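Re: [ENG-882] Designed sequences occasionally contain unexpected residues at chain ends

Forwarding the minimal case from QA. Structure tokens:
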């Protein structure tokens, strides 16, 4: 039974659950069996509560038996990045600082999944406090790419991406601050969606950079991503940045919204540093849209070259502020070396945070310090405004943009850990969307000669996820990349 269920889409599994061809308990058992069979190599999950998972699945079966199914996700397992709060479950953020912390409440996104009947399945590994592009910064383990376990799965949501790619869960949630959903989705050969900033509540998402963070889904298909988005999107009074906007039926709109579309290709995204195999696959995808009658226009986003610098000022400044709460006094790691209040703060943070988190806190504290605030943070915010305006100007001419998701395929473990700047450039094509607050989706568009996945990034207008997903769905359904799975 297990082998027949893993790698199936959430939509297909939902149909089987509805037809009573499989039970939610059988599906949960299949996913648990896949975790047991593969996670000694993949290391996607930090913790999995089997008893709780089976209890949730049993409740889903009872609802279906009573004719009270809550929709297409009822009984479907969903993995969660260990930065999204679920009551009674660990919430470590991949850090020693929160190693023993258990969440006392649910994130709004988790409540949305529970209301949809989803089975909340495990805590997925991540770069510590979502700071990284390879999931090598986790304090507990390094996640492997299921396509080649000697390579990274991307980050910071590498565990969530690898779990879907390895067939351990059909869908999962991650968070995206500078590309942390889209980049691992591309490197793991699956779909990853970063919604518009404000579409999904951040309540219960442990903050890294509050003006950039956004929760989104990983899935095998665009349709599955639409199903998850439907469950978690919407206004929330607990999040002051949550936006009131109409939430359409994203799944139904996939078939209704058809091209041809006007699609832009930003010339700044096809320059130096783009691997030849990535360029070839993305250009082939662009050619496919052109062959379908879409109008393809070259557009310019002239401030793109400043995006990485602006991002690492704004993100680290916000991280410096947000992570001040982890002080060793309340609910975090407390150093046994401490003899007074100052010692508690000093030693606990030194022991609890990893090197990358410390690096970003120091940088953020510096750019916010007296005499440097205007020169760095203030100026970066102005550049951010210019970057957003570049996109809005482009959207006067086109419906969406087509770009590579990542400049390269998945790289070897340890290959970039000694050079932080080189690691930061792994997100060069994704960062701008977070600065501009725009939605973006990565869909598989090919493989390198070594058999490693390549992703196409599609960028949409604010709060136009229905159009964005329809454009991605059209490409996906005409190709079979989403049906390819790693041999584990």
């Amino acid at each position: 039974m297990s082998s027949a269920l893993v790698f199936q889409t959430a939509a297909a599994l939902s149909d089987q659950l509805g037809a009573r061809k499989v039970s939610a308990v059988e599906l949960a058992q299949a996913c648990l069996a896949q975790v047991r069979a593969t996670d000694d190599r993949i290391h996607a999950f930090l913790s999995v509560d089997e008893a709780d998972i089976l209890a949730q699945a049993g409740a889903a079966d009872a609802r279906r038996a009573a004719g009270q199914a809550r929709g297409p996700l009822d009984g479907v397992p969903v993995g969660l990045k260990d930065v999204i709060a679920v009551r009674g479950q660990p919430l470590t953020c991949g850090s020693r600082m929160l190693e023993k912390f258990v969440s006392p409440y649910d994130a709004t996104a988790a409540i949305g999944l529970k209301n949809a009947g989803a089975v909340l399945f495990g805590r997925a590994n991540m770069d510590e406090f979502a700071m990284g592009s390879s999931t090598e910064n986790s304090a507990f383990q390094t996640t492997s790419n299921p396509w080649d376990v000697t390579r990274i799965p991307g980050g910071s949501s590498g565990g969530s991406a690898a779990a879907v790619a390895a067939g351990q869960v059909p869908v999962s949630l991650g968070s995206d601050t500078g590309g942390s959903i889209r980049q691992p989705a591309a490197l793991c050969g699956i779909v990853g969606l970063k919604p518009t900033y404000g579409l999904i509540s951040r309540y219960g998402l442990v903050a890294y950079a509050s003006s950039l963070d956004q929760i989104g889904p990983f899935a095998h298909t665009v349709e599955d991503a639409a199903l998850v988005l439907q469950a978690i999107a919407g206004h929330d009074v607990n999040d002051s940045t949550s936006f009131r906007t109409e939430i359409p039926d994203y799944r139904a709109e996939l078939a209704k919204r058809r091209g041809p579309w006007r699609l832009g290709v930003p010339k700044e995204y096809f320059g130096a540093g783009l691997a030849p195999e990535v360029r070839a696959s993305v250009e082939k995808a662009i050619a496919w849209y052109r062959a379908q009658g879409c109008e393809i226009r070259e557009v310019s986003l002239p401030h793109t070259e400043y995006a990485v610098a602006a991002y690492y000022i704004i993100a680290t400044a916000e991280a410096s502020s947000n992570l001040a709460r982890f002080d060793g006094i309340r609910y975090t790691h407390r150093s046994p070396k401490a003899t007074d209040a100052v010692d508690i703060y000093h030693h606990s943070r030194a022991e609890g945070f990893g090197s990358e988190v410390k690096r970003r806190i120091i940088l953020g504290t510096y750019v916010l310090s007296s005499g440097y605030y205007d020169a760095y943070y203030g100026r970066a915010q102005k550049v951010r405004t210019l970057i957003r305006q570049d996109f809005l100007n482009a959207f006067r001419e086109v419906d969406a943009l087509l770009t590579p998701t990542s400049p390269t395929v998945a790289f070897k473990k340890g290959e970039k850990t000694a050079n932080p700047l080189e690691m930061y450039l792994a997100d060069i094509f994704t960062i701008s969307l977070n600065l501009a607050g725009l939605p973006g989706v990565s869909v598989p568009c090919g493989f390198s000669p070594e058999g490693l996945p390549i992703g196409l990034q599609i960028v949409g207008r604010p709060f136009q996820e229905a159009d964005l997903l329809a454009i991605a769905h059209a490409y996906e359904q005409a190709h079979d990349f989403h049906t390819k799975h790693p041999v584990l």
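QA comment: On inspection the terminal residues look reasonable. The domain at 2-263+397-483 is CATH 3.90.1300.10 (Amidase signature (AS) enzymes). Proposing we downgrade this to a documentation issue.
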